[in-house]
Amino acid sequence: MNRGKVRNHALYFLGVLTYIVALIPFLSVNLVKSLILIPIIAYTLPIMEYLQPKIMSLKIGYKDVLLMIPPIIPYIFLPYDEIVYVLIPLALMVLTFTLYLTKHTMWGNVIGTAFEASISIVWGVFINNSLFLIPSIYWLLYIFTGALYVEYKIPYRKLDKGIVQISWIISLVLIIGLSIRNPITLITLIEPSIRYLIPGEKLKSPKEIRDLGKKGSKKDILFVVLLAITYTLSRIFPII
Question: What is the pTM of this model?
Answer without folding.
Answer: 0.92
